[in-house]
UniProtKB/TrEMBL annotation:
Residues 5-267 form the Thiolase N-terminal domain. This is Thiolase family protein. The lineage of its organism: Bacteria, Bacillati, Actinomycetota, Actinomycetes, Mycobacteriales. The keyword Repressor does not apply. PANTHER family: ACETYL-COA C-ACYLTRANSFERASE (PTHR43365:SF1), BLR7806 PROTEIN (PTHR43365). Residues 275-396 form the Thiolase C-terminal domain. It comes from Prescottella soli. Belongs to the thiolase-like superfamily. Thiolase family. Its EC number is 2.3.1.-. Gene3D superfamilies: 3.40.47.10.
């Protein structure tokens, strides 16, 4: 079978996903165009050789509607002949894009393909698509008569089930910021971040190169002062087991971002004189209880490890998306995973969770971390809306 390799991976530095954030004045098409353009320029690649661009985006409405991946590649100056598609597997959209891209190479359908993702949560706020709409229909109403719940409540239920107290969640979150700040200070993100020129709210033109969501001064004591984000009297009555530990401080922030990964066959990389950095080893995608919603990384990880013929201790780094602190903590508990290997450069609580961009953002950071540390295997997984998860294992070359 043809080997699918990663030749390069890039991302934008995160922007706060609210008015006044560093990227809030940048159209999402231009955000994605920046990383697409950088990817081909960094590798001296003729974009006409790209067989397809597969992008992830969750809120495909407004400025992100009508196949933003195609719009962005045209904005980036790619030839008209390059096609694109935009997919939605919720938070795992661009991780799924990477799966489809790599699987297409392995099947012989592609020689060169780009997997990417984008989300502007400042310009297209979370929940924009379904406002005022019934997105479930009568079948779901019959199957779940009390209704599916908000993912924040799912995080509360997970914290209760795995006995994760507030101090544990806040300590983990503070450590995410500490690790991300240390990585930035050491220059570990320099190779993956594409500088982008932005206009501030004050009308100044500046170069954005630093993750805006990282707060180096964050402490567990400071996080302990924040109030519950999801407790209401109605929810407290319905879910008496919840302890209401989830706050803005131990959740991922709304974020703007874009990322992209250049994937090709190993033969094509050699033909072009490009050096593969990692290869795709194994893939998995699965579903789990949509009421708990965020637990699917556990069965997805079991599935991908079984396919790979590896154990958790064979993996040198784990990227488990920090949608909420209970997610990586329950995952680590279930697998007995080494906490030092878990999100070693910080996770989404610090670096942000720009929905459709997060899958290829995690992959970008994972590739760079394996290279810097000499690790061989990296595992990436993330929870996704309606109780799904992707899992990916890559091997550094």
């Amino acid at each position: 079978m043809t080997k699918a390799v990663i030749v390069d991976a890039v991302r934008l530095a995160s922007g706060k996903g609210k008015p006044g954030g560093a990227l809030s004045g940048t159209h999402p098409v231009e955000m994605l165009a920046q990383v697409l353009r950088a990817l081909v320029e960094r590798n001296d690649l003729d974009p006409a050789m790209v067989d397809d661009v597969i992008g992830g985006c969750v809120q495909q409405v407004g400025e992100q509607a009508l196949n933003i991946s195609r719009t962005a590649l045209l904005s980036a100056g790619f030839p008209d002949s390059v096609p694109a598609t935009t997919i939605d597997r919720q938070c795992g959209s661009s991780q799924q894009a990477a799966h489809f891209a790599a699987q297409g190479v392995m099947a012989g359908a592609y020689d060169i393909v780009i997997a990417c993702g984008v989300e502007s949560m400042s310009r297209i706020p979370m929940g924009t698509s379904p406002i005022g709409q019934d997105t479930a229909g009568p079948g779901i109403a019959a199957r779940y008569p009390e209704g599916l719940i908000h993912q924040g409540i799912s995080a509360e239920l997970i914290a209760a089930k795995w006995n994760l107290d507030r101090a544990t969640l806040d300590a983990y979150s503070a450590e995410s910021h500490r690790r991300a700040a240390a990585a930035a200070e050491s220059g570990f993100f320099d190779a993956e971040i594409v500088p982008v020129t932005v206009t501030t709210g004050a009308g100044e033109t500046v170069e954005h190169t630093t993750d805006e969501t990282v707060r180096a001064a964050t402490t567990a004591d400071g996080l302990a002062t924040l109030r519950s984000a999801f407790r209401t009297d109605a929810f407290a009555q319905r879910f008496p087991e919840a302890q209401w530990h989830i706050t803005p401080g131990n959740s991922s922030p709304f974020t703007d971002g874009a990322s992209a990964v250049l994937i090709m066959s190993e033969d094509m990389a050699n033909k072009l004189g490009l050096t593969p950095r990692a290869r795709f080893h194994s893939f998995a995608v699965t579903g789990d209880d949509p009421m708990f919603m965020l637990t699917a990384p556990i069965p997805a990880t079991h599935k991908v490890l079984a396919k790979a013929g590896l154990g958790i201790d064979d993996i040198d780094a784990y990227e488990v998306n920090e949608a909420f602190a209970p997610v990586p903590l329950m995952w680590a508990h279930e697998f007995g995973a080494d906490p030092a290997k878990l999100n070693p450069r910080g996770g989404a609580i610090a670096l942000g969770h720009a929905l459709g961009s997060s899958g290829t953002r995690l992959l970008t950071t994972l590739v760079n971390h394996l290279e810097a540390t000499g690790g061989r295997y990296g595992l990436q997984t993330m929870c996704e809306g309606a109780g799904m998860a992707n899992a990916t294992i890559i091997e550094r070359i």
